[in-house]
Design goal:
It contains ten helices and 15 strands. α2 packs across α3 and α2 crosses α9. The protein has about 325 residues and is an alpha/beta fold.
């Protein structure tokens, strides 16, 4: 018998309950892992709230790190005692022990701690596909990144800075602005005090940027579109302030033949080779010091509701992890 966070109905953080759960022996192709650290991500709140529906009752969480305790039939790539992690589910990470398909796991090198891996795997893989495979950012490019002091934003600032790109980042406070700059953000904009559209145009001498990365959603979408150069790409990959309303394709033409995309990490690591390649790129960046785990908040797993409250209130910066 072990414990997990479960919810039987969708709603606010109060629906998250600390409950006993039975974990059966791993099935064919599965391994059982005992979590040592769990990543907290905005998608967890979307699952809990019902924005991204899950069969109920459900255990949220799609990022975790732990030790293999048992292997199921047919698993030859992993053994008891291996340190492993997963950046993209399946859901069920808010648990002390779980079974998971072996092909969704990657091994954690000795040079990376469990807490670093739990803080960096999902968000690092997200940055990897956004700046390398969805839109390839080159040295010298200037990009606009919303929520630059958040978990994904900080890693993006670090990675983009390491390749010689210029990052314009929006932030919510002077403290977050300083934090973003410490991690490679070139220009910071306080959205509560400045019109970010005007600021971006001032910084770029009226040219705009070739790509905008926006996890904020409804509150920033319209102005973000206006920050793009002709034929620029609008990447909306989160809904912190609510989903973006429907957009007419004609608007994209009127604004300069723009490209609009709503990507998901799950599609970019669905194939085993992509999962391995993306994770390896993240681990390499950690090993070279280009990516650093700025773990600023640690919550006990049983207090996951408090972690969700802090995350949704935008009271967190850097990375947040849960410990079983």
């Amino acid at each position: 018998m072990s414990y997990a966070i479960r919810f039987a109905k969708t709603g606010g953080p109060e629906v998250l309950k600390w409950e006993k759960v039975d974990v059966p022996p791993p099935g064919a192709g599965e391994v059982r892992i005992r979590h040592t650290a769990i990543g907290l991500n905005f998608i967890d709140t979307y699952h809990r709230a019902g924005l991204y529906p899950m069969p109920l009752p459900a255990i949220p969480g799609i990022e975790g790190v732990g030790v293999v305790e048992a292997v199921g039939e047919g698993v030859a790539t992993l053994k008891e005692g291996d340190r492993v992690g997963y950046p993209a589910g399946p859901a069920g990470a808010y648990s002390q022990i779980r079974n998971i398909p072996a092909d969704r796991l990657v091994e954690i090198p000795d040079s990376v701690t469990d807490q670093e891996a739990a803080a960096l795997l999902l968000k690092g893989c997200t940055v990897e596909f956004l700046i390398r495979r969805l839109y390839h950012v080159n040295p010298g490019d200037t990009v606009l990144w919303h929520a630059a002091a958040g978990g994904v934003g900080i890693l993006a600032c670090q990675w983009l800075s390491s390749i010689g790109a210029t990052v314009i980042g929006t932030v919510g406070s002077e403290d977050k602005a300083a934090f973003a700059k410490e991690n490679g953000c070139t220009h910071t904009i306080l959205y509560s005090e400045q019109n970010f559209e005007d600021a971006v145009m001032d910084i770029t001498d009226g040219q705009g940027v070739p790509v905008v990365y926006d996890s904020v959603g409804a509150a920033t979408f319209d102005q973000s579109i206006n920050c793009l150069k002709k034929r620029g790409m609008m990447v909306t990959f989160g809904n912190a302030t609510g989903p973006v309303p429907p957009v007419s394709p004609a608007l994209l033409a009127q604004k300069g033949s723009l490209i609009l995309t709503r990507p998901s990490l799950m599609d970019y690591v669905a194939e085993r080779d992509d999962l391995i390649s993306s994770s390896a790129s993240v681990m390499m960046k950690i090993a070279t010091g280009s990516l650093k785990a700025n773990i600023r908040q640690i919550f006990a797993l049983e207090h996951a509701a408090q972690a969700h409250i802090a995350l949704e209130a935008r009271k967190t910066s850097g990375q947040t992890i849960l410990t079983p």
